[in-house]
Design goal:
The protein is α+β, with helices and mostly antiparallel strands. Helices cover about 40% and strands about 20% of the residues. It contains 8 helices and 8 strands; from the N terminus they run H-E-H-E-H-H-E-H-H-E-H-E-E-E-H-E. Strands 1-7-6-5-2-3-4-8 form an 8-stranded mixed beta sheet, with helices on both faces. The relative contact order is 0.20.
Length: about 200
């Protein structure tokens, strides 16, 4: 009698077993977690935040790391919001901060341009119709791990909560979020180096 209760109290057995960790703010997730997930990814890195700008600022030598990853066979993808879209302009009005959404997107575009010669690194803008679906939810995938940020009404990304998911079942939470960004990716348009 005691053993099953102890196990249930200390081991996740329901649908939440894929929730590895949660943070009240994305900025509360240690940079070392991001660095470890990037370093350990072997087949897929998919950064599907609307701007993705902060990873360039917070991860040392990210350009070199992504170049090595891609050259080693890891697929590296960036899904961004279009800096000139209505969704971007509306979000800029909502946030009302100096470092605008379009500026943050351009930080990523500038860094991606430096990797334009690397096979295996891809970038797309989400489709105009998908802008509202993309801007409200960031999903960062590293093989079977994902960091997911649902954006709260008027907060910028670093002030929104973050969930660290680890895939452990088919059609679980990890797969649901992964399928969401794959759908957005499928309708996106390629980012060209001149952008």
């Amino acid at each position: 009698m005691i053993w099953p209760n102890t196990v249930r109290a200390n081991v996740k057995t329901g649908h939440d077993r894929e929730v590895f960790a949660v943070y009240p703010y994305r900025s509360a997730c240690p940079q070392s977690v991001w660095g470890q997930l990037i370093a350990e990814a072997r087949s897929d890195i998919f950064l599907a935040g609307y701007t993705n700008y902060f990873v360039w600022l917070e991860q040392p030598a990210l350009l070199q790391t992504l170049r090595r990853k891609a050259e080693g066979g890891c697929r590296v993808r960036f899904l961004l919001g279009d800096p000139s879209s209505d969704a971007t302009r509306q979000r800029e009005q909502v946030e009302d901060v100096t470092l605008t959404v379009s500026t943050r997107i351009r930080i990523t575009l500038e860094n991606l341009a430096k990797l334009a010669d690397v096979a295996g690194i891809e970038g797309r803008f989400s489709a105009m119709d998908d802008g509202p679906n993309h801007i409200g939810l960031s999903v960062f995938r590293f093989d079977d791990h994902a960091l997911v940020t649902p954006h709260l009404a008027r907060t910028v990304g670093h002030d929104s909560p973050l969930m660290h998911l680890r895939r452990s079942e088919e059609n679980g939470m990890f797969d649901r979020f992964a399928e969401h960004v794959e759908e957005l990716w499928s309708r996106g348009s390629d980012i060209h180096p001149a952008t």
